[in-house]
Design a protein that fits this description.
The chain is of the alpha+beta class. It is 53% helix and 7% strand. The longest helix is centred in the middle third of the chain and has 33 residues, at 308-340. The structure holds zinc ion (ZN).
Length: 686
């Protein structure tokens, strides 16, 4: 991760939000077609080719023209050719060019059906990332901004300039030449080490092999058949998720689960030992060069949580809160285990998923095969649209001028009182070469009076009348939450404040909150209807909710182990760090499930690169999500007045205010952990 700036770091300027974690940044490139939004850009007005459906060459030309445009703008800024009064607005226009180009590049690199197109988009992405790197070290532009007298400027303009200066400084712009060169080298090294770290995890696929005559009971027969080599009579399972998860969940054979677990927790070993150590060292050196005690101090500075000490306090508070519930559920797992092995006196990390699955079935009788009959894709989509229209008093209709990149992609626009607020694409079904997870991409952020926000949801769901899992419906709504945030928040004056450009430890909160809607009988009544036209029964929803709460304490504590590991690797001088010893100590402290000898989990914990010290962020934004949701719980999930208030206080300001202030404004009080704490008080497993 490049340590640059909130505004020019592409990961901040173009955040792509994935449901599980934030990947590298993102996307957003071209402006909307000229006929759908006024383009008041003065100089170098771009004529937008219909490159969406054209061959890769079209995109290469587009990227190249944007690159020249951006370079000319940077050069004019560096040469003092831009008048002082125009400086910030010219920087704003430069960000607009970067945003729309990187947005498209990042999206197409992940979804375009033509491999050549994807390659061209990747190359464009790298080219622009390099350009941003140069820009953030420009002493000339930095000092021109620093010299501006903004005492009487509007508050958002002052915020823009102040954050810009902070980001330049965080990139090392005011260091001497020698230190700057070192910063650049460190950044390049860190990038390469991060790529190596991922690669060593990705490529280290391990296997466990057993005889077909061994105990494979519990596993689905077709799963066993697919992994059996008839000639040798051996059955082989890999550490990839499609193998690993079913084995951990269903296999009755404890030794099989344990051996696959040990292989899984050894991916990246030993290759990543040196890589991780070096990554920590380089980031430590970088942070010190930039004037920080350590990398955790550097990275938390721009989060809501602000300091590593507060992050540590948060982790400990969560851990304390979760412990009673965790201990209770742990005892249930142990009792379940003793039915299988009367001598057992502890539950192993490789046993928890299997035992939880058994307990959920016996305690809650939730049959996921039954649940899914209520979720047909087309109906779910219509239901989520209807929910949005009702809640926020908007209209969603097909967007005729949209330019989908594949025939399965649909284009829509959102209107309010006849006025278009933004546009979006749904790219919802798997196809070859497409991104494998679920994410909300930004094609471009909106700019008041100049361009509308355009988003894209990229998922891998069943199509048409095919059935979805309840968890997929939840993911759909989660990603749709990012999309709405980007569109409602996409009407700012400053590009750097448009859409979802809030603090990283807040950005998941609106989407995490929206997930709650999918557990409400009133909301499900809109679309959870089976092929006989029957709505999902209320008692089934109740059972699903009870099963959802089981194990939340255990899960939270284990997450706090991960969060503590991420923070504590980065909050000290790595010279004195024993990677294994600290991982063992923290797992045994935070998790109910003890460290298993001979494993090196940290070497396959990819988020140690992407999230670095701030893996706590997921839980942090969840706490805020639960607090905001408590208002809807009180006043009704379909309360349009409250939804309008939420939209105007939290979503519409985008990144123009601190997230702390947004949330406080909505709640009329500072947020707290009470609502989250209540989830640990549920009598879930009696
Ligand atoms: Zn998300």
């Amino acid at each position: 991760m490049r340590p640059a700036a909130q505004y020019f770091d592409r990961r901040r300027v173009f955040p792509k939000i994935s449901c599980a974690f934030i990947l590298t940044g993102l996307l957003s490139a071209c402006t909307s077609p000229p006929d759908s939004s006024p383009d008041v850009e003065s100089a170098s007005t771009v004529s937008w080719p219909n490159y969406e459906s054209a061959a890769a060459q079209g995109f290469i030309e587009f990227c190249s023209s944007q690159y020249q445009d951006a370079q000319q703008r940077i050069s004019a800024l560096e040469q003092h050719e831009v008048k002082e009064a125009m400086l910030l607005s010219e920087l704003n226009q430069l960000e607009r060019v970067l945003n729309r180009t990187l947005g498209r590049a990042s999206l197409y690199a992940n979804v375009h059906p033509d491999p050549e197109y994807r390659e061209a988009a990747d190359a464009c992405d790298q080219q622009f990332t390099g350009l941003i790197s140069e820009l953030t070290l420009s002493q000339s532009i930095f000092s021109q901004v620093a010299d501006l007298d903004l005492d009487n400027a509007p508050v958002n303009e002052r915020r823009y300039a102040a954050n810009l200066l902070k980001d330049f400084r965080r990139s090392g712009v005011d260091l001497d030449e020698q230190a700057q060169a070192r910063v650049k080298t460190l950044q390049d090294d860190i990038n390469v080490l991060g790529q190596d770290f991922y690669k060593n995890i990705r490529e280290d696929v391990r296997y466990v092999e057993v005889d077909a005559t061994d105990d494979l009971s519990g596993l689905p027969q077709e799963f066993i058949d697919a992994h059996t080599d008839e000639a040798s009579g051996k059955v082989r399972f890999s550490t990839d998720y499609p193998d690993y998860l079913p084995v951990m969940q269903y296999a009755n054979n404890d030794a099989l689960r344990k051996s696959l677990y040990v292989e899984f927790r050894n991916r990246g070993y030993p290759a990543n030992e040196a890589v991780l150590k070096s990554l920590l060292e380089k980031r430590f050196e970088l942070a010190q060069l930039l004037g920080y005690d350590n990398y955790a101090a550097y990275i938390t500075e721009v989060q809501m949580i602000e300091t590593p000490e507060r992050a540590q306090q948060f982790i400990d508070a969560m851990n304390d809160m979760a412990t009673p519930t965790a201990d209770r559920d742990y005892q249930l797992l142990l009792t379940e285990l003793r039915e299988l092995d009367s001598s057992a006196n502890s539950v192993g990390d490789w046993q928890k998923t299997y035992l939880s699955e058994r307990l959920k079935k016996s305690l809650y009788q939730v049959d996921s095969q039954e649940v899914r009959t209520y979720f047909q894709y087309d109906r779910v989509k219509e239901g989520i649209f209807e929910l949005t229209e009702k809640l926020f008093n908007v209209e969603i209709r097909p967007w005729a001028e949209g330019q989908p990149w594949d025939e399965s992609v649909e284009a829509f626009e959102i209107l309010e009182n006849g006025e278009v607020l933004g546009q979006f694409y749904l790219d919802m079904h798997p196809r070859e070469g497409k991104y494998k997870h679920a994410a909300a991409f930004t094609l471009q952020d909106g700019l008041a009076g100049q361009q509308l926000p355009i988003k894209a949801l990229v998922c891998n769901f069943p199509a048409g009348n095919d059935l979805m899992e309840h968890s997929q419906v939840e993911t759909f709504l989660h990603e749709f939450g990012h999309l709405l945030h980007g569109i409602f928040g996409g009407h700012q004056t400053w590009m750097a404040q448009s859409g979802i450009k809030t603090e990283r430890d807040f950005v998941e909160a609106p989407s995490q909150m929206l997930e709650e809607w999918i557990w409400s009988p009133d909301v499900l009544a809109l679309f959870a209807i089976n092929s006989d036209g029957e709505a999902i029964p209320a008692e089934l929803i109740e059972k699903m909710k009870a099963a959802r709460d089981f194990g939340i304490g255990l899960f939270t504590r284990h997450q706090m182990f991960y969060a503590a590991l991420s923070l504590n690797y980065y909050n000290r001088d790595p010279a004195e760090l024993d990677l294994d010893a600290l991982a063992i100590e923290l797992q045994n402290h935070y998790s109910n499930f003890a460290y298993v000898d001979g494993t090196h989990f940290q070497l396959s914990f990819g988020h140690l690169n992407g999230y670095s010290a701030v893996y706590y962020t997921y839980m942090w934004s969840l706490v805020i999500a639960k607090d905001m949701f408590s208002e809807f719980e009180k006043q009704g999930l379909l309360n349009t007045e409250l939804a309008a208030r939420y939209r105007s206080k939290v979503l519409e300001p985008g990144g123009s205010r601190d997230a702390n202030d947004l949330v406080e404004d909505f709640l009329n009080r500072p947020y707290n952990i009470d609502a989250f704490a209540r989830s640990f008080g549920t009598e879930s497993a009696q």
